[in-house]
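Ticket #250: bound-state structure for phosphoenolpyruvate.
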Amino acid sequence: MRKTLIAGNWKMNGSTEMVENLINGVVEGSKKLLKVSTAVCPPYVYIPMVTAATKGSAVGVGSQNISTQASGAFTGEISTSMVKDFGCQYSIIGHSERRTLYGETNEVVAEKFKVVKEAGLIPIFCIGETLEERESNVTEDVLMKQLDAVFAVNGDNAYADCVIAYEPVWAIGTGKTASPEQAQDAHAFIRQHIAKINADNAAAVQILYGGSMNPGNAENLLAQEDIDGGLIGGASLKTEDFMAICQAGE
Ligand code: PEP
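RESOLUTION: The complex was predicted; output attached.
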């Protein structure tokens, strides 16, 4: 039985005051959850503050990106050992904003996946198609290439101890959500594709939906057989909305 995970991607938002209020609210709200696990991914600079606030709670913490390098002359980069040092358990990799705005290819993302796994962190591996790709009926092909790049670098057991986030690019931050059926179809495809290589990992991997999930649409999305949680952007910045999404998964 896969556990539901609701993870917040705060993106480049926050101030010390806002982060303090938000994380305290999430820690408090998460105490009421019986079935759903929660995690938050703050901007790097707020990670120490957030892990201090989540210490002793069930709220996980992750980075939004990671360097493929271990240490050295890589100005502006942050390594796996650094985020682990500050108590992170997760790292988002391959978010569509990293792919489109910072040129991260499937191959770069697969290398990031590798260093995250080697460090004992859990990748939240984001994949998904653009609107143009969906309209050209190549969604499955795009997902397959994104998944296979990780298999190529990480081997047949790549998807053990990992979280996948299916995030159709056209639904991220746009207010347009995939219908529960569209999302379920993509999630089922992802699971079936992994099962061709490793059936155990396919059955166990948590596949989150991301793309304008909010308190109004979360219940129907989370009710789908292959949707094991959500990666939440905008709605994770308000404690009430984030906790309402978590409650929808209970
Ligand atoms: C995201 O950035 O991962 C995301 C899903 O954003 P939003 O919920 O704002 O669409």
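RESOLUTION NOTES: Residues 19 and 46 are 7 Å apart (CA to CA).
TICKET STATUS: resolved
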